[in-house]
Amino acid sequence: MPSQDVVDRFVATVVGGDYVGAIERFYVPGASMQENQDAPRVGRDGLVRHEQGIMSLFESIACEIVGAPLIAGDRVAIQWRFAFTPPGGETRTLQEVAWQRWDGERIVEETFFYDPKQIAAPPA
Question: What predicted TM-score, i.e. pTM, was given to this entire model?
Fold first, then answer.
């Protein structure tokens, strides 16, 4: 079960924009991430590469937490709001809930629940 302090440090790292550092410091080597009902991505190194790829697509990514994280045993739920700005493009906002399973002070698995229409391109 994660302590409130470690969850707070994880949240501060993400809100501070260190998305790769959050994965490197707070996820176990065999961690998995899953987007809605997509197949999970497994392995911290692959998660880092995927995050770096996403970050390379945008001029900026900003994040804020909505409310306080909910901690219940080894489960943590966090509601995030991200603002993605592509080079020369319009900022899109994505609000999601991250459902995490922790083993002690590290994340083992995480599923993101969101409506992908939030960030879809506007009609031409």
Answer: 0.92
